[in-house]
Amino acid sequence: MAEVVAIKPAVADGPVLVSQDKGILRFTLASPPANALSLATMASLQAEFDRVKSDKSVRVIILAASGKVFCAGHDLKEMTAHRAEADRGKAFFEKTFDACATLMQTIVRHPKPVIAEVDGLATAAGLQLVASCDLAIASHEATFCTPGVNIGLFCSTPMVALSRNVSRKQAMEMLLTGETIDAATAKEFGLINRIVPREYLNQVVNKYAQTIASKSSLVVKAGKEAFYAQAEMGLADAYAYTGRVMVENMLARDAEEGIGAFIGKRKPQWTDE
User: Fold this and answer.
1) Are strands 114-118 and 16-21 parallel, antiparallel or unpaired?
2) Which end of the chain is least crowded, N or C, by CB within 10 Å?
3) Same domain, yes or no: 150 and 195
4) Is residue 197 situated within a structural domain?
Protein backbone atom coordinates (compact mmCIF):
# COMPACT_ATOMS: atom_id res chain seq x y z
CA MET A 1 0.00 0.00 0.00
CA ALA A 2 1.24 3.48 -0.83
CA GLU A 3 2.40 5.56 2.11
CA VAL A 4 0.37 8.75 2.50
CA VAL A 5 1.60 11.66 4.57
CA ALA A 6 0.83 15.33 4.89
CA ILE A 7 3.64 17.80 4.33
CA LYS A 8 3.01 18.91 7.89
CA PRO A 9 2.08 15.63 9.58
CA ALA A 10 0.44 17.43 12.49
CA VAL A 11 -2.03 19.00 10.06
CA ALA A 12 -4.04 16.22 8.47
CA ASP A 13 -5.84 18.63 6.16
CA GLY A 14 -2.73 20.56 5.03
CA PRO A 15 -2.53 22.35 1.66
CA VAL A 16 -0.65 19.52 -0.07
CA LEU A 17 -0.85 15.78 0.50
CA VAL A 18 2.01 13.51 -0.49
CA SER A 19 1.88 9.82 -1.34
CA GLN A 20 4.40 7.47 -2.89
CA ASP A 21 3.96 4.13 -4.57
CA LYS A 22 7.28 2.60 -5.58
CA GLY A 23 9.08 5.20 -7.72
CA ILE A 24 6.07 7.43 -8.33
CA LEU A 25 5.50 10.37 -6.00
CA ARG A 26 2.13 12.15 -5.99
CA PHE A 27 1.49 15.69 -4.78
CA THR A 28 -2.20 16.52 -4.34
CA LEU A 29 -3.39 20.08 -3.84
CA ALA A 30 -5.80 19.71 -0.95
CA SER A 31 -7.35 23.10 -0.25
CA PRO A 32 -10.70 22.90 -2.03
CA PRO A 33 -12.75 24.43 -3.38
CA ALA A 34 -10.15 26.68 -5.05
CA ASN A 35 -6.84 24.91 -4.31
CA ALA A 36 -5.36 28.41 -4.53
CA LEU A 37 -1.63 29.04 -4.62
CA SER A 38 -1.44 30.77 -1.27
CA LEU A 39 1.99 31.40 0.20
CA ALA A 40 1.50 28.37 2.44
CA THR A 41 0.63 26.11 -0.49
CA MET A 42 3.54 27.32 -2.59
CA ALA A 43 5.91 26.90 0.36
CA SER A 44 4.67 23.34 0.87
CA LEU A 45 5.12 22.46 -2.79
CA GLN A 46 8.52 24.11 -2.89
CA ALA A 47 9.69 22.22 0.17
CA GLU A 48 8.59 18.90 -1.27
CA PHE A 49 10.10 19.47 -4.70
CA ASP A 50 13.36 20.49 -3.03
CA ARG A 51 13.28 17.52 -0.67
CA VAL A 52 13.17 14.88 -3.42
CA LYS A 53 15.67 16.37 -5.87
CA SER A 54 18.30 13.81 -4.95
CA ASP A 55 15.97 11.10 -3.64
CA LYS A 56 16.79 8.01 -5.72
CA SER A 57 13.56 6.32 -4.64
CA VAL A 58 11.58 8.93 -6.60
CA ARG A 59 11.63 8.59 -10.38
CA VAL A 60 8.51 10.51 -11.46
CA ILE A 61 6.30 13.13 -9.81
CA ILE A 62 2.55 13.54 -10.41
CA LEU A 63 0.87 16.82 -9.55
CA ALA A 64 -2.87 16.44 -8.96
CA ALA A 65 -5.67 18.14 -7.02
CA SER A 66 -8.74 17.30 -4.99
CA GLY A 67 -12.18 18.72 -5.72
CA LYS A 68 -13.70 20.29 -8.84
CA VAL A 69 -10.99 22.92 -9.33
CA PHE A 70 -7.43 21.92 -10.16
CA CYS A 71 -6.05 25.30 -9.13
CA ALA A 72 -7.66 28.75 -9.21
CA GLY A 73 -4.34 30.59 -9.17
CA HIS A 74 -3.15 32.97 -6.49
CA ASP A 75 -5.24 33.50 -3.36
CA LEU A 76 -6.71 36.91 -4.18
CA LYS A 77 -8.37 37.25 -0.77
CA GLU A 78 -5.00 36.68 0.91
CA MET A 79 -3.38 39.26 -1.32
CA THR A 80 -6.16 41.82 -0.96
CA ALA A 81 -5.94 41.61 2.84
CA HIS A 82 -2.47 43.17 2.63
CA ARG A 83 -3.66 46.31 0.84
CA ALA A 84 -4.31 47.86 4.26
CA GLU A 85 -0.58 47.88 5.02
CA ALA A 86 1.50 51.06 4.70
CA ASP A 87 2.99 49.99 1.36
CA ARG A 88 -0.46 48.97 0.06
CA GLY A 89 0.70 45.36 0.00
CA LYS A 90 3.72 45.83 -2.26
CA ALA A 91 6.11 43.77 -0.13
CA PHE A 92 3.61 40.92 0.16
CA PHE A 93 2.86 40.99 -3.57
CA GLU A 94 6.59 40.84 -4.35
CA LYS A 95 7.00 37.92 -1.95
CA THR A 96 4.07 36.08 -3.55
CA PHE A 97 5.20 36.50 -7.15
CA ASP A 98 8.82 35.70 -6.27
CA ALA A 99 7.73 32.49 -4.55
CA CYS A 100 5.62 31.56 -7.56
CA ALA A 101 8.43 32.24 -10.03
CA THR A 102 10.82 30.13 -7.96
CA LEU A 103 8.32 27.26 -7.78
CA MET A 104 7.64 27.24 -11.53
CA GLN A 105 11.34 27.30 -12.35
CA THR A 106 11.94 24.53 -9.82
CA ILE A 107 9.47 22.32 -11.69
CA VAL A 108 11.10 23.03 -15.05
CA ARG A 109 14.63 22.53 -13.70
CA HIS A 110 13.73 19.57 -11.48
CA PRO A 111 15.67 16.36 -12.23
CA LYS A 112 12.49 14.29 -11.98
CA PRO A 113 9.82 14.44 -14.73
CA VAL A 114 6.62 16.11 -13.49
CA ILE A 115 3.20 15.16 -14.85
CA ALA A 116 0.12 17.33 -14.27
CA GLU A 117 -3.10 15.37 -13.72
CA VAL A 118 -5.83 17.92 -14.45
CA ASP A 119 -9.47 17.34 -13.62
CA GLY A 120 -11.33 20.64 -13.34
CA LEU A 121 -10.48 24.30 -13.81
CA ALA A 122 -6.88 25.51 -14.08
CA THR A 123 -6.87 29.28 -14.13
CA ALA A 124 -4.22 32.04 -14.02
CA ALA A 125 -1.31 30.77 -11.89
CA GLY A 126 -3.08 27.40 -11.86
CA LEU A 127 -2.71 27.25 -15.63
CA GLN A 128 0.88 28.39 -15.14
CA LEU A 129 1.37 25.37 -12.90
CA VAL A 130 0.05 23.02 -15.59
CA ALA A 131 2.15 24.64 -18.33
CA SER A 132 5.29 24.37 -16.20
CA CYS A 133 4.98 20.60 -15.88
CA ASP A 134 6.72 18.34 -18.39
CA LEU A 135 3.53 16.53 -19.35
CA ALA A 136 -0.13 17.36 -18.76
CA ILE A 137 -2.99 14.89 -19.03
CA ALA A 138 -6.53 16.11 -18.52
CA SER A 139 -10.06 14.80 -18.19
CA HIS A 140 -12.78 15.88 -20.63
CA GLU A 141 -14.13 18.11 -17.87
CA ALA A 142 -10.90 20.10 -17.49
CA THR A 143 -10.95 23.77 -18.51
CA PHE A 144 -8.25 26.41 -18.73
CA CYS A 145 -8.02 30.21 -18.74
CA THR A 146 -5.90 33.26 -18.01
CA PRO A 147 -8.69 35.61 -16.90
CA GLY A 148 -6.61 38.32 -15.24
CA VAL A 149 -7.53 40.89 -17.87
CA ASN A 150 -11.15 40.59 -16.70
CA ILE A 151 -10.30 41.82 -13.20
CA GLY A 152 -7.69 44.42 -14.06
CA LEU A 153 -4.68 42.19 -13.37
CA PHE A 154 -3.09 40.94 -16.59
CA CYS A 155 -1.72 37.38 -16.30
CA SER A 156 1.85 38.51 -16.92
CA THR A 157 3.65 35.80 -14.98
CA PRO A 158 1.39 32.96 -16.20
CA MET A 159 2.14 34.13 -19.76
CA VAL A 160 5.77 33.06 -19.32
CA ALA A 161 4.84 29.38 -19.04
CA LEU A 162 1.89 29.70 -21.42
CA SER A 163 3.90 31.31 -24.23
CA ARG A 164 6.51 28.56 -23.96
CA ASN A 165 3.87 25.91 -24.61
CA VAL A 166 1.54 27.34 -27.23
CA SER A 167 1.93 29.65 -30.22
CA ARG A 168 2.05 33.42 -29.70
CA LYS A 169 -1.31 33.98 -31.36
CA GLN A 170 -2.99 31.34 -29.19
CA ALA A 171 -1.33 32.67 -26.03
CA MET A 172 -2.41 36.21 -26.81
CA GLU A 173 -5.95 35.02 -27.55
CA MET A 174 -6.18 33.54 -24.07
CA LEU A 175 -4.47 36.49 -22.38
CA LEU A 176 -6.41 39.25 -24.13
CA THR A 177 -9.89 37.70 -23.99
CA GLY A 178 -9.64 35.99 -20.62
CA GLU A 179 -12.04 33.39 -21.95
CA THR A 180 -12.10 29.77 -20.80
CA ILE A 181 -11.10 27.03 -23.22
CA ASP A 182 -12.12 23.40 -22.97
CA ALA A 183 -9.79 20.41 -22.89
CA ALA A 184 -10.09 19.79 -26.64
CA THR A 185 -8.98 23.35 -27.41
CA ALA A 186 -6.18 23.11 -24.85
CA LYS A 187 -4.91 19.97 -26.60
CA GLU A 188 -5.19 21.66 -29.99
CA PHE A 189 -3.18 24.60 -28.63
CA GLY A 190 -0.51 22.25 -27.27
CA LEU A 191 -1.10 23.05 -23.61
CA ILE A 192 -1.90 19.43 -22.69
CA ASN A 193 -0.80 16.08 -24.08
CA ARG A 194 -3.92 13.99 -23.89
CA ILE A 195 -7.60 13.99 -22.89
CA VAL A 196 -9.18 10.97 -21.20
CA PRO A 197 -12.51 10.26 -19.52
CA ARG A 198 -12.53 11.32 -15.87
CA GLU A 199 -12.93 7.75 -14.63
CA TYR A 200 -9.71 6.71 -16.39
CA LEU A 201 -7.62 9.81 -15.68
CA ASN A 202 -5.74 8.46 -12.68
CA GLN A 203 -5.13 5.15 -14.42
CA VAL A 204 -3.75 6.76 -17.58
CA VAL A 205 -1.52 9.20 -15.68
CA ASN A 206 -0.13 6.35 -13.58
CA LYS A 207 0.58 4.39 -16.76
CA TYR A 208 2.56 7.31 -18.17
CA ALA A 209 4.42 7.62 -14.88
CA GLN A 210 5.19 3.89 -14.76
CA THR A 211 6.49 3.95 -18.31
CA ILE A 212 8.85 6.84 -17.55
CA ALA A 213 9.86 5.33 -14.21
CA SER A 214 10.99 2.18 -16.03
CA LYS A 215 13.72 4.14 -17.86
CA SER A 216 17.19 4.99 -16.61
CA SER A 217 16.75 7.91 -14.21
CA LEU A 218 20.22 9.16 -15.16
CA VAL A 219 19.26 9.37 -18.82
CA VAL A 220 15.85 10.92 -18.12
CA LYS A 221 17.43 13.57 -15.89
CA ALA A 222 20.04 14.46 -18.51
CA GLY A 223 17.45 14.52 -21.27
CA LYS A 224 15.05 16.78 -19.41
CA GLU A 225 17.82 19.21 -18.51
CA ALA A 226 19.06 19.29 -22.10
CA PHE A 227 15.57 19.77 -23.52
CA TYR A 228 14.91 23.00 -21.66
CA ALA A 229 18.47 24.28 -22.00
CA GLN A 230 18.62 23.88 -25.79
CA ALA A 231 15.19 25.45 -26.21
CA GLU A 232 16.63 28.76 -25.03
CA MET A 233 19.59 28.64 -27.46
CA GLY A 234 20.16 29.55 -31.07
CA LEU A 235 20.29 26.67 -33.59
CA ALA A 236 24.08 26.34 -33.80
CA ASP A 237 24.56 26.63 -30.04
CA ALA A 238 21.78 24.09 -29.44
CA TYR A 239 23.45 21.52 -31.70
CA ALA A 240 26.86 22.13 -30.15
CA TYR A 241 25.44 21.78 -26.65
CA THR A 242 23.34 18.67 -27.32
CA GLY A 243 26.27 17.08 -29.14
CA ARG A 244 28.29 17.36 -25.93
CA VAL A 245 25.34 15.97 -23.98
CA MET A 246 25.14 12.97 -26.34
CA VAL A 247 28.86 12.25 -25.92
CA GLU A 248 28.52 12.28 -22.13
CA ASN A 249 25.41 10.13 -22.41
CA MET A 250 27.25 7.59 -24.60
CA LEU A 251 29.92 7.27 -21.91
CA ALA A 252 27.32 6.45 -19.24
CA ARG A 253 27.06 2.85 -18.08
CA ASP A 254 23.32 2.84 -18.77
CA ALA A 255 23.88 3.78 -22.43
CA GLU A 256 26.36 0.94 -22.77
CA GLU A 257 23.88 -1.41 -21.10
CA GLY A 258 20.88 -0.16 -23.09
CA ILE A 259 22.58 -0.40 -26.46
CA GLY A 260 23.99 -3.81 -25.57
CA ALA A 261 20.54 -5.01 -24.52
CA PHE A 262 19.01 -3.70 -27.75
CA ILE A 263 21.61 -5.48 -29.88
CA GLY A 264 21.34 -8.62 -27.78
CA LYS A 265 17.52 -8.48 -27.84
CA ARG A 266 17.14 -8.56 -24.06
CA LYS A 267 15.68 -6.29 -21.41
CA PRO A 268 18.16 -3.70 -20.07
CA GLN A 269 19.13 -3.69 -16.41
CA TRP A 270 19.57 -0.05 -15.38
CA THR A 271 22.02 1.02 -12.71
CA ASP A 272 21.28 4.77 -13.11
CA GLU A 273 24.98 5.36 -13.72
Assistant:
1) unpaired
2) N
3) yes
4) yes
Q: Is residue 103 part of a domain?
A: yes
Domain match, 20 and 148 both: yes
Amino acid found at 162: L
Q: Where are the alpha helices (DSSP H) in the chain?
A: 39-51, 76-80, 90-109, 125-132, 158-163, 168-177, 183-189, 198-213, 217-231, 235-250, 253-264
Three-class secondary structure of residue 38 per DSSP: coil
pLDDT tens digits, one per residue of 20-39: 999 999 999 999 999 999 99
To the nearest 10 degrees (0 to 180), the angle between helices 217-231 and 253-264 is 110
Cα angle 183, 174, 177; round to 5: 125
Q: What is the CATH number of the domain that holds 136?
A: 3.90.226.10
Q: Which segments in the chain show pLDDT lower than 70?
A: 1-13
Instruction: Name residue 151's beta-bridge partners.
Output: none
DSSP one-letter string for 133-169: SSEEEEETT-EEE-GGGGGT---TTHHHHHHTTS-HH
Is-above-0.90 flag for pTM? Answer: yes
Backbone angles phi, psi at 194, to 5 degrees: -155, 150
Q: What is the dihedral of CA 146, 150, 151, 157, to 10 degrees?
A: 30
> Is 242 inside a domain boundary?
yes
Distances (CA, A) of 213 to 15, 217, 224: 26, 7, 14
Q: Are residues 49 and 176 in the same domain?
A: yes
Give the residue numbers spanning the domain of 243. Answer: 217-264
Number of domains in the chain: 2
3-state secondary structure of 7: coil
Assign 259 to helix, strand or coil: helix
Distance CA 38, CA 89 (A): 15
